[in-house]
């Protein structure tokens, strides 16, 4: 399997996040991608290719144009305002406030285009976001051109990013961009299988009213787990999209048996939908030693996931999402991919 990777991810470094009552160094850090790349190489998964540069237009097929145009302006505006630390929002237009008027100053714009303080900016963040987007589209093109699978080693991740907001380490929704790109290239139906520990609220929001992209999401129950405000089982899609969004919220402590039961059900629904291509949002923060998550998958479980996905018999694009146990992140993420190749 070919991997697409860009060293530009590394410019998104040294940034902070707001979590648990503190501004702390973000768990989502450059070493994550480097450990995964090292494992791709040591396992001889296949060639590691640089991304091709893509026009930003494909991002605007799933995000609003104003949101995408805002992202490259964040750091220059932040510097202009005289700040030195990470650009992090601190006010959001929640219930009771005006969310329909675009404000004019950087602090307000950061809040206007986000849902939490988990997607901060430093000097190299935009270049990393753009490279992650290029990685996803380059890997998607490999699948379109006949590869049975490809691995988009994206960093930063994307599944929390909605049509007009960032959050949870995510800015451009790489998996959603790729799924839409496959549609625009002629695929009639696309399925997104989101295996990250956290609900992919952005992906759900983007496709919620559509029947041409099925979204299946396995995750920690939002009653007790981030992102808290979406991801319940009764969210099944709206209008034409009714029935094409499927959520599998699971309790803290879920291990292989419980998690796999959800995966089996999701795979059955996916097979029944009969998409022409599958996009897997590959998060490995379901791992028992993940520092911010509460599931109990073991390293030996990840190849089993890959094997099950391979049995669907469909062209598959793997897009990297979360996973913060950096020592094992490569073993687990690449475990899914070698499992897919049944080796
Ligand atoms: C709160 C936790 C963010 C989790 C991000 C993630 N800052 N999403 O891994 O998949
Ligand atoms: Zn996650």
Write the layout of secondary structure elements.
Layout: E1 2-4, E2 16-19, E3 22-25, H1 30-42, E4 48-49, H2 65-70, H3 74-80, H4 106-112, H5 125-144, E5 149-152, H6 174-184, E6 190-194, H7 201-207, E7 213-220, E8 245-250, H8 256-273, E9 277-282, H9 301-310, E10 316-320, H10 326-340
Parallel strand pairs: 1-4, 1-5, 5-10, 6-7, 6-9, 7-8, 9-10
Antiparallel strand pairs: 2-3
Bound molecules: 6-amino-N-hydroxyhexanamide (6XA) and zinc ion.
Strand order of the largest sheet: 4-1-5-10-9-6-7-8
Main sheet summary: 8 strands, parallel
Total DSSP E strands: 10
Contiguous low-pLDDT stretches (5 residues minimum) are: none
Bound molecules: 6-amino-N-hydroxyhexanamide, zinc ion
Secondary-structure-based class equals alpha/beta
How far apart, in Å, are the first and last alpha carbons? 12 Å
Q: Indicate the percent of residues in helices.
A: 25-40%
Mean pLDDT: 98
Helical stretch count?
10
| Shape annotation | globular
Radius of gyration: 18 Å
Strand content: 5-15%
Order of helices and strands: EEEHEHHHHEHEHEEHEHEH
């Amino acid at each position: 399997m070919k991997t697409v990777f860009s060293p530009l991810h590394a410019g998104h470094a040294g940034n902070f996040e707001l979590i648990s009552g503190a501004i702390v160094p973000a768990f989502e850090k450059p070493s994550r991608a480097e450990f995964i790349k090292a494992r791709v190489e040591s396992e001889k998964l296949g060639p590691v290719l640089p991304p091709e540069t893509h026009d930003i237009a494909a991002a605007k097929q799933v995000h609003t144009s104003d949101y995408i145009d805002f992202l490259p302006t964040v750091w220059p505006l932040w510097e202009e305002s005289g700040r030195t630390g990470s650009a992090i929002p601190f006010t959001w237009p929640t219930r009771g406030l005006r969310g329909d008027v675009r404000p004019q100053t950087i602090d307000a714009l950061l809040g206007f285009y986000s849902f939490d303080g988990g997607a901060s900016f430093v000097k190299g963040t935009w270049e990393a976001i753009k490279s992650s987007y290029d990685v996803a589209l380059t890997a998607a093109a490999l699948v379109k051109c006949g590869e049975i699978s490809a691995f988009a080693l994206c960093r930063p991740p994307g599944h929390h990013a909605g049509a007009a907001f960032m959050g949870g380490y995510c800015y451009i929704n790489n998996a959603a961009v790729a799924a839409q790109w496959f549609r625009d290239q002629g695929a009639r139906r696309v399925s997104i299988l989101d295996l990250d520990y956290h609900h992919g609220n952005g992906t759900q929001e983007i496709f919620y009213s559509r029947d041409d992209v099925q979204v299946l999401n396995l995750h920690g129950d939002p009653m007790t787990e981030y992102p808290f405000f979406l991801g319940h089982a009764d969210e099944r899609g709206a209008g034409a999209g009714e029935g094409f969004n499927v959520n599998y919220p699971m309790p803290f402590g879920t291990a292989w048996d419980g998690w796999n039961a959800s995966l089996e059900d999701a795979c059955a629904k996916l097979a029944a939908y009969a998409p022409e291509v599958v996009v897997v949002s590959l998060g490995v923060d379901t791992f028992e030693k993940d520092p911010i998550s509460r599931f109990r998958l073991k390293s030996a479980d990840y190849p089993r996931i890959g094997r099950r996905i391979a049995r669907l018999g469909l062209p598959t694009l793997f897009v990297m999402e979360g996973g913060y146990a950096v020592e094992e992140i490569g073993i687990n993420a690449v475990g899914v991919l070698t499992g897919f190749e049944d080796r």
